[in-house]
Each structure stands twice: as structure tokens, then as C-alpha cells.
Amino acid sequence: MKILVTGGAGFIGSAFIRLTMDAHPEFSVVNLDKLTYAGNLENLKTIEGNPRYRFVRADVCDAAAVDAAFVEHRPDAVVHFAAESHVDRSILSPEPVVSTNFMGSFQILEAAKRHRIGRYVHVSTDEVYGSIPEPLDADESYPLIASSPYSSSKAGSDLLALSYAKTFGFPVMVTRASNNYGPYQFPEKLIPLMISNALEDQALPIYGDGMQVRDWLYVDDHCRAIHAVLAKGEPGEVYNVGGSRALANLEVVHRILKITGKPESLMKTVKDRPGHDRRYAITSEKLEKTTGWRAEMDFELGLQSTIEWYVQNRDWVARVKSGSYRDYYERNYTQR
Ligand code: NAD
Ligand code: DAU
Predict the structure, then answer these.
(1) Phi/psi at 168 (5° precision)
(2) Which of 76, 123, 131, 167 sits between 20 and 30 A of 25, alpha carbons compared?
(3) Which residues on neighbouring strands pair with residue 297, listed in sequence order?
(4) How much is the pLDDT for 332?
(5) Using a 6 Å CB cutoff, which residues line ligand 1?
């Protein structure tokens, strides 16, 4: 079975491809990615040369390029990750976010419908539910009350994907995961930013009072959930994917400082994010009952090993921060 993965050079997409190559010999993968600032083919160095893997550089908003990829590679299934994924960037500059997350999702859905793709996973986020008041945990029927341009573009594309199931009988499933962490995450999101700044003795910017709550999910647990939905999900259904590890941001940062042995004086309170959601909390009961999936990684172990990865890969961090990782693409893909 061949899966067309979009956004496979990013943080979660690359983890999904590495997992698929390692644990699913029955699958081959075509990775369609534009290589934005967040897309880095170095993340897939370990599987390069694998005969079950191909890369196509294309923009999901480019209907002709997307169609050409479907014609050339004839995938059986699609897992759609490609997105502008950072909330702060979506506040500073919403246009590429709306364009990729909504119109890009539309182009991939359209091509997949036209080419009669048999299984399709639209990868989404728990942010579509907005801030969840205590003591609730949102299930899949919770209303969509998105707060940022990022989360509203994801909510819009979720509804679009579900409309394809309802209107056209197209076999699409939607997953909504909580905050992922793990290796290869671009150092703009909370955990990798705090780790890389701490390692460089730079200030750790805490938005507002730092008491916002996020539910942390190890990236490989998320990728296993997507495989479970691909195999056992019901078309037209939504599946939450949570890590069952809700923590206030300050608590996460304290743990990072403790593990890295850095002083708390590095923490600096800064202006809060506009429209900042206070608390995310979801239940993954439906996914667990349908597929038997469980989040396996213990947060303390996952954080420890993530920090270890960033310590061992300071050169990767330096390259993605400076943008020089782009040379990797030029060297390996354009000069053959
Ligand atoms: P990321 O920013 O690390 O990677 C995004 C990837 O998409 C990059 O490789 C980028 O080059 C590619 N891309 C962006 N625009 C594109 C376009 N127009 N055409 C083709 N490729 C394009 O993102 P991530 O954190 O890996 O997130 C992947 C998906 O998972 C997103 O849909 C995101 O909404 C969702 N998600 C993320 C999290 C999280 O905590 N990171 C949690 C839940 C859901
Ligand atoms: O919930 C899933 C979502 O998690 C995904 O859909 C998004 O793609 C992903 O980026 C993430 O969104 P968040 O906004 O929750 O993640 P971020 O890492 O940007 O921020 C996590 C929390 O930390 C949030 O409350 C804001 C705070 N924060 C973040 C940064 C970058 C800080 O206090 N300081 C910071 O410098």
C-alpha cells in the first residue's frame, strides 16, 4: 500500500515517515512537501535511499502539481499533515496560514477524491475546540470555538474534510491531537524553544502568568494513533488524540531547567499572546475504544529523552535557526 504524506519534512510528518519505514514494511511513502521554513529533509536522513520512499517538492495549494503527484505515484491512501502550524506566526501573518491550511487542504481533498483514494486521514488539532473550562475534557462532539487564525483555519479545514465524507461519501477521517513534543521540533514551539534557549543560557520567554495548561503527547504516540486510524477508523469520524498529561507551562519550564541544570533566573515574563487559550483538555476514549491505541510515553521519560536529543543535536538547532539547513536540499536534491 502506498501512502501519500503531505508535510512529511516537518516535525510530526517526518516522525510518521520514519515510523512507517521502520515498523510498517507493508507501506511505501511519497512525501509531498513545499519545504517552508519548517520543512527540513535532514529530518529524514536516516531513511534516505530506502526504495519504499520518494520525495516530491510541491505546494499543496498548487492544484496542477498536486494532481501530477497523484498521477505519477498513484497512492492508495493520504495522510495530510502539511500546514502552517505555529499560532504566533498565524497572529503576525495570517495569509499563508489560511491559504495552506484551508485552500491547501481543499486541493489535496479534491485530488484525492478525483483519484478515488481509499483511505484519507486529515491531521488536525485539539485547538479547534478553543479553551476548555475546568473540569471538562472535550470529546469529539464539543463545539468548535477556535481562537487564533491558525486554529480557525484548522477548524475550517476539518469541516471541509468532513463535508467530503457526508456529501461525496469520501473515506476521510479527522484526527485532533494535543500538543506534541519530541525530537526534530522546530525551536519556535514551547518545549524545543525552552530547551534550546536554556542550553544557550538565553532568556526563556513566559507568556503572561505561565499558568496556561496544555496536554503533552509524545510525537511517536501521535504517529501510532494516525496509523491506528488509517487502519481502523470509520470514514466521516473524528478521533481525539491526547497525551493524558496536562501541565501548566510554568511546570514544563521548571522541569526543563531542572533537567538541563540551568537557573530559574533565565525565565522572563513577556507580553501575553493575543487571544491566548487558557486550557486545552480532551478525552481520547473514542480512539482507544475503536482502535485499542493508548499513549505509551511517560512525560518525564519523553522530556528527558527529548532534551538529550537537543543536547546531542545542537548543530541541527543552529542550522534550522540560521536557515542554513536549506543547503541540504540544494546539495542532495537539485544537483544530481
Ligand atoms: P511543522 O510546522 O513542523 O511542519 C509542517 C510541514 O508542512 C513542513 O514540512 C512544511 O514544509 C510543510 N508545508 C507547509 N506549508 C506547505 C504547503 N503549502 N505545501 C506543502 N507543504 C507545506 O508542523 P507539525 O508540528 O509537524 O504539524 C503537522 C500537522 O499536525 C499540522 O497539520 C498541524 O496542524 C498538526 N498538529 C500539530 C501539533 C503539534 O503540537 N505540533 C498538534 C496537533 C496537530
Ligand atoms: O494543541 C495542539 C497545538 O499545539 C498544535 O495544533 C499547534 O500546531 C502547536 O503549535 C501547539 O500550539 P500551542 O500554541 O499550544 O503551542 P506553543 O508551543 O506555541 O505554545 C504552548 C504554550 O506555551 C502556549 O500556552 C503558549 C506558551 N508559550 C509559547 C512560546 C512559544 C510561552 O509561554 N512562551 C513561548 O515562547
Answers:
(1) -110, 0
(2) 123
(3) none
(4) 81
(5) 6-7, 9-13, 33-36, 38-39, 59-61, 81-85, 100, 104, 123, 125, 154, 177, 179-180, 186
Q: Thinking of the domain 2-327, which architecture would CATH place it in?
A: 3-Layer(aba) Sandwich (3.40)
Q: Which tens digits make up the pLDDT trace of 211-256?
A: 999 999 999 999 999 999 999 999 999 999 999 999 999 999 999 9
- Report CA 35 to chain centroid distance, whole Å: 15
Q: Are 5 and 16 in contact (CB under 8 A)?
A: yes
Which pTM does this prediction carry?
0.98
Ligand 2, atom nearest to 276 Cα: 25
Residues forming the active site: 126-127, 150
Ligand 2 atom nearest 207 alpha carbon: 33
> What's the CA-to-centroid distance between 264 and ligand 1, angstroms?
31
Which tens digit of pLDDT belongs to each residue from 27-53?
999 999 999 999 999 999 999 999 999
Number of neighbouring beta carbons within 10 Å of residue 302: 23
Report the residue among 36, 214, 257 best suited for mutation to probe ligand 2: largest number of ligand atoms under 8 A from its CB.
Answer: 214
Q: Output the CA 273–ligand 1 centroid distance in Å.
A: 20
Give pLDDT tens digits for 268-310.
999 999 999 999 999 999 999 999 999 999 999 999 999 999 9
Q: Where are the domains of the chain?
A: 2-327
CA angle 50, 226, 329 (to 5 degrees): 40
Per the CB < 8 A criterion, the answer to whether 210 and 42 are in contact is no
- Cα separation of 131 and 146, whole Å? 8
